[in-house]
Amino acid sequence: MAQSAAPASISSAAPAVAPISLKAIAPWAVFFGILMLILLYFVGAEQGATSLLSGENVHEWVHDGRHLLGFPCH
Fold this sequence. Notes:
Blueprint: H1 22-44, H2 57-61, H3 63-68
């Protein structure tokens, strides 16, 4: 029988990667979830009666994002 020229010891398998546990991901998921809720508040509701900050500055900074996400503002 014919022998292959390539050595048999070379393997194309990828190295094993350790899985990330849910306990390691949970605090970061909660942090980014809260951060997204705060961002959603400022984009979607920071005007009028529920305004936390006075003036129009926040409205002007998030004006285009407000329209992009479908929030009415005027």
